[in-house]
Design a protein that fits this description.
Elements (H helix, E strand, L loop, with lengths): L2 E3 L6 H5 L7 E6 L8 H6 L11 E5 L5 E5 L22 E6 L7 H22 L6 E3 H7 L19 H14 L3 H4 L25 H9 L15 H13 L5
Parallel strand pairs: 1-4, 2-5, 2-6, 3-5
Antiparallel strand pairs: 3-4
Helix pairs in contact: 3-5
The structure holds zinc ion (ZN).
The site of zinc ion (ZN) has 4 residues, from loops.
Amino acid sequence: MNFIQNLLTENKCYIAGAKMAPRGIVVHSTGVNQTKTSAYLTSWNKSEVTKCVHAFIGYLPDGTFGTVQTLPFNYKCWGCGNGSKGSYNNSHIQFEICEDNLTDSKYFNICYKEAVEFCAELCKTYGIDTKNIVCHAEVYRLGYGTGHTDVEHWFPKFGKTMENFRADVEMAIKGDTSPAEESPVEEGDEEVAVTYYDWTTACPDWSVPYVQKALDMGIIKGDEQGRLRLTDDRIWTLVVTLRATGIMK
Ligand SMILES: [Zn+2]
C-alpha cells in the first residue's frame, strides 16, 4: 500500500467537521474515466463542494499509484447520501476508486489490491469487522444510501464480487502476522509496552495540530504502508522541535 495525506480543508464537509466512530467501510468508484487523484484533490477542495469522502485510490500527484486520505477518518463524510433507513455517512469510512474506461484488467488489479490493503489497515486500526465493508450499490439495497451501482458495474467484469473483496480483506488481515507488527514491545526493551500511533486521528488530541504540521511540511512521512509509527516519545521530540524552531507555539 502506498499512502499519502492531502486533506481537503476547503471542502464544506471538512469545514462542517462532524465526528463519528467508524463502524464500517463503503467502497465507491467514481463513474468517470479519470485515473488521476489530482483531478479530485483540486476540484473537491472548494467550499461550495457538498460531497466528500475519506480517501481516493488512483494515481497520486507524484505519479505513483496509491491511496490519498482526504478527510480525517473520524469525520462524517458526505459520500453515499440518504436511503430509506438513514445514511452510512454517519458511521462509515468511505473511499472512491478512480475509474478508467473499465476495460483494462491491469488497472483493475492494481486498484483492487490497493483497496484490499487499505481496507485491511482500516479494519485493524478501527476494529471494523470485514462483514461491515460494503459497496455503494449494497448500501442502497440496505436502505442507507442513494441508488447508485458502484462498484457492481465494474468488479464483476474482472471476476470479482464484494463477497470476494471482503474475503480478500480478511485474508490480508490474517496474513499480516509478522512478529514486529504483532508485538507491542519494542525490541530489546522488554516489558515496556509501546503504543504506536499510525494515523493522525489515532494520535492524542492535543498533539494532532503538531503531527499535521509535520506531515504538511514533510518532516515526517508514513512508512511504505502509510503508517506514521509515532510513539509518545517521538511525538514529544516533534513538538519540541516545532516549538524550538518557532514553527509552532
Ligand atoms: Zn458511490
